[in-house]
Specification:
The protein has a single domain, classed as Metal-dependent hydrolases (TIM Barrel, Alpha-Beta Barrel), CATH 3.20.20.140. 38% of the residues lie in helices and 18% in strands. The chain is built from ten helices and nine strands. Strands 1, 2, 3, 4, 5, 6, 7, 8 and 9 form a nine-stranded mixed β-sheet that branches. Helix 5 crosses helix 6 and helix 9 packs across helix 10. The longest helix is centred in the C-terminal third of the chain and has 16 residues. The C terminus is likely disordered. Bound molecules: zinc ion. Zinc ion (ZN) binds next to loops. The site of zinc ion (ZN) has 4 residues, from loops.
Length: 255
């Protein structure tokens, strides 16, 4: 399986990245999408010291992170240097910030994400619909809405747009009934799994990629299929989303 969004470069995981990745391998993970805010992308390159780690790096300006005036130019430069990298997490977050201005900035980042896989973050009142309004005009982006927490109606719109929907640790939480509805509904070939580690943990704080196994177990139960079948399907979905050209490369490749 592939953890389709985690943050191994965050301080809380970084110090223990070698043992964390060993546990992920032991749990059957082959790869992980590692999303970083642009400023820490050097750490992604250092993931090479995780033995056998295969990472698919994504870079972008998360709405909750402070950013410099030339943020778009910086991102463009990073992406130019790394044709195989994705873009993320980018998006809309209305929990602490006003919505104004976020849509324009998202639109600028999506314009850099053409023909790339992209991890979208949408949290807070109206965020998902605002993000949809931008994504609808974003051209050729292979998008995924991470930690999707919308209604079935909202899910339909994103699916019609060709995007993938991703579920993580919260599906294992007792209060996950709303999430269970779309997870049971979504066409099985458009579903991705993520841990969002260290956030949204399925088990303990901080979460880690190995937790993907519990998430897969819960989703298989909700879908009424065998765990092995689900694992095979979501792995195939992840490769499709990442595209063969952007298939995971060994971290050695980032020297
Ligand atoms: Zn997020």
């Amino acid at each position: 399986m592939i953890d389709c969004n985690c943050h191994l470069v965050f301080d809380s995981l970084w110090a223990n990245r070698v043992s964390i990745w060993q546990r992920a391998r032991a749990a059957g993970l082959s790869s992980a999408v590692v999303s970083a805010e642009q400023v820490t992308h050097q750490r992604i390159q250092q993931l090479q010291d995780c033995e056998q780690a295969e990472v698919c790096p994504a870079s972008g300006w998360h709405p909750l992170f402070p950013r410099p005036a030339d943020a778009i130019a910086q991102l463009a430069q990073v992406l130019n240097q790394h044709p195989r990298w994705g873009v993320g997490e980018i998006g809309i977050d209305t929990r602490k910030l006003p919505r104004d201005g976020q849509a324009d900035f998202l639109s600028e980042q999506l314009s850099l994400a053409q023909n790339r896989w992209t991890v979208l973050h949408a949290a807070g009142p109206g965020a998902l619909d605002t993000a949809f309004g931008v994504a609808r005009g974003s051209g050729n982006v292979r998008g995924m809405v991470h930690a999707f927490a919308g209604s079935i109606q909202q899910a339909k719109r994103w699916l019609d747009l060709g995007w993938y929907l991703s579920i993580g640790g919260p599906i294992t939480w007792p209060q996950s009934r709303r999430l269970a509805k779309w997870v049971a509904y979504v066409p099985i070939d458009r579903l991705l799994l993520e841990t969002d580690a260290p956030d949204l943990s399925a088990t303990k704080q901080p979460g880690e990629p190995a937790d993907l196994v519990q998430i897969a177990g819960k989703v298989a139960e909700l879908r009424g299929i065998e765990l092995a079948e689900l694992q095979q399907q979501v792995t195939q979905n992840a490769y499709q989303w990442l595209d063969t050209d952007c298939a995971p490369v060994t971290a050695q490749g980032f020297k």
